[in-house]
């Protein structure tokens, strides 16, 4: 059974435990002292003020890119970005403003690129006649670009350039 | 049955008596009183009529019913026709009531159906409203198609549009469809001020007519051809 043959504390082992506890507490005191000497440096917050409760002046919204020029994808699987404004576009269960131009039937009149063939496949690989429900909400993957400055530097390297000497 | 006959007969007698009274010259009242009084009463009546009409033509009046305030008005507030950079606001009657007097009166007469709907609670709940939404929206689209988007054009006229200030896509489509008169504003710009109903089967204005689908339409893309040509020049 558990704890049946637990060794009895001898006088010697008791003494050792007391000594160890004293040493531990003195070490902890020294540790606290050293922490005060070297203050913790926090990484600055990316957004908002340093003081979380302070009033912040909101910067103006960045302008969306609206030049209609197709952008190169950074990697083959990247969903293409939206090179036009989508302000006020209704993307609901009832209406899909994106598909009013990008749907196969409407591309002839609108001149917009058709949604890719992958969007007609449901999750079992069945090809449907129209966009599959899992691809219906365009902005889940496709996003608009703005002229905003990146918050942090970007070290992304194109797969083509990986391992290549410049 | 006998009662009804007697009632109609009594009403007819009243009409006849009224006609006999007003078709004879006045025996007691002076002509000046009658003409001047008639004029003043006319002014008061006409002024009152127009004032009442103006009151029913305000956003405050429209949103005094919960049907409008809780549904369409809330949606309008999210759109560019409510707040925008230049601070011009379109209120309900700006888009839904014609500005010309005759058309306005015609629309107001139509609106008596809306009073009926209000009394009998046709869209008194959100669910009823959503169920009716496609029908109601179709009425509005049909009206704007019939009057060539008159209410849009009260503010946005195609002659005042600077196509160079539009994005190239918008300018292209406007010059192809709007300037040629093939389409009117509402054909493409549906749901600009309210949420859309179920749009299954409602096709956008730029859908090619069935007889044109798949046909060579190079003439429509002249601008693109021209651009390609100028780019190929040495």
UniProtKB/TrEMBL annotation, chain A:
PTM annotation: Binds 2 heme C groups per subunit.
Compartments, as annotated in UniProt: Periplasm
Residues binding heme c 2, per UniProt: 119, 138, 141-142
Keywords: Electron transport, Heme, Iron, Metal-binding, Periplasm, Signal, Transport
InterPro entries: Multihaem_cyt_sf, NapB
SUPFAM superfamilies linked to this entry: Multiheme cytochromes (SSF48695)
This protein's GO CC annotations: periplasmic space
Residue numbers binding heme c 1: 84, 98, 101-102
Sample GO molecular function, one term: metal ion binding
Superkingdom of origin organism: Bacteria
Role of this protein: Electron transfer subunit of the periplasmic nitrate reductase complex NapAB. Receives electrons from the membrane-anchored tetraheme c-type NapC protein and transfers these to NapA subunit, thus allowing electron flow between membrane and periplasm. Essential for periplasmic nitrate reduction with nitrate as the terminal electron acceptor.
Complex and partners: Component of the periplasmic nitrate reductase NapAB complex composed of NapA and NapB.
Assigned protein family: Belongs to the NapB family.
Protein name as annotated: Periplasmic nitrate reductase, electron transfer subunit
Highest classification ranks of the organism: Bacteria, Pseudomonadati, Pseudomonadota, Alphaproteobacteria, Hyphomicrobiales
TrEMBL record, chain B:
CC cofactor: heme
Cofactor binding, note field: Binds 4 heme groups per subunit.
Residue positions binding heme 4: 185, 188-189
Residue span, NapC/NirT cytochrome c N-terminal domain: 26-199
Keyword line: Cell membrane, Electron transport, Heme, Iron, Membrane, Metal-binding, Transmembrane, Transmembrane helix, Transport
Pfam family membership, one: Cytochrom_NNT
Residues that span the membrane, as ranges: 27-49
GO biological process: anaerobic respiration; denitrification pathway
List of residues binding heme 3: 152, 155-156
Presence of keyword Transmembrane: yes
Domain of life: Bacteria
Entry PTM: Binds 4 heme groups per subunit.
Compartments (UniProt record): Cell membrane
Keyword Metal-binding carried by entry: yes
Gene Ontology cellular-component terms listed: plasma membrane
Its membrane topology: Single-pass membrane protein
UniProt-annotated binding residues for heme 2: 92, 95-96, 194
Residues reported in the UniProt entry to bind heme 1: 62, 65, 68, 114
NCBIfam families in alphabetical order: napC_nirT
PANTHER family: CYTOCHROME C-TYPE PROTEIN, CYTOCHROME C-TYPE PROTEIN NAPC
Physiological role: Mediates electron flow from quinones to the NapAB complex.
Entry's family note: Belongs to the NapC/NirT/NrfH family.
Protein name: Cytochrome c-type protein
Species this chain originates from: Ancylobacter aquaticus
Classification of source organism: Bacteria, Pseudomonadati, Pseudomonadota, Alphaproteobacteria, Hyphomicrobiales
